[in-house]
Design goal:
- Helix content is 72%, strand content 0%.
- It has helices spanning 18-23, 26-50, 58-73, 75-84, 90-117, 127-151, 155-171, 177-180.
- The longest helix has 28 residues, at 90-117.
- The chain is elongated and about 65 Å long.
- The chain is mainly α.
């Protein structure tokens, strides 16, 4: 998460122009804040998802590694978004940013599928919890795809739709009550 701050550069200009330079960086602040929140939510959800696991196998480890690849990639599309949010390339920048989360969501699905099919879940994890997570992950992919497409038409709406999934991810209940108490 701390790598994201590297994309906010100290403004340099004429004496007395620091305030204007700091204000001009507003796209960087917005992009940083959005990505910080998203990565924080991913970190919390990753922690909660792994609490469902009783053991791991090689497919799980590789799926997890691929998921983490997309998480570590987030600072780059964040920088692209910040640099282009107020330019004619805003549509492409927002679409690129949203598409990053399509890839990320697909890999969350892969990781969870690997856990379920590999029999890696703790016995306390209920079928209802599995169904909730699976359904939410599928919807996430669809919404991110929609946000990516919408970015080419209405970049602000694509970004808002992309960000709206934060509410879904915060509210996602990974654990049944019996797992929550352990």
């Amino acid at each position: 998460i701390t790598l994201l701050i590297l994309e906010i550069r100290v403004p340099h200009g004429e004496a007395g122009g620091l305030w204007a330079g700091l204000l001009a960086l507003w796209p960087s602040y917005i992009a940083f804040l959005m990505s910080f929140i998203v990565i924080l939510i991913m970190w919390v959800n990753h922690h909660e998802l792994l609490r469902m696991v009783r053991s791991v196998n090689y497919p799980f480890l590789f799926a997890n590694g691929l998921l983490l690849l997309t998480v570590t990639f987030v600072p780059f599309p964040t920088a692209v978004l910040a640099a282009n949010l107020t330019t004619p390339d805003a549509k492409v920048a927002v679409a690129f940013y949203c598409a990053t989360f399509v890839a990320n969501a697909l890999l969350w699905n892969l990781l969870f599928t690997t856990m379920v099919r590999g029999g890696l879940l703790r016995r306390e994890v209920t079928a209802a919890t599995v169904d909730t997570v699976r359904r939410t992950y599928y919807v996430g992919v669809l919404v991110y795809v929609l946000a990516t497409g919408l970015a080419f038409v209405r970049p602000a709406l694509g970004l808002i739709l992309n960000a709206s999934l934060c509410v879904v991810w915060i509210r996602l209940g990974y654990r049944s009550e019996s797992v929550a108490s352990s």
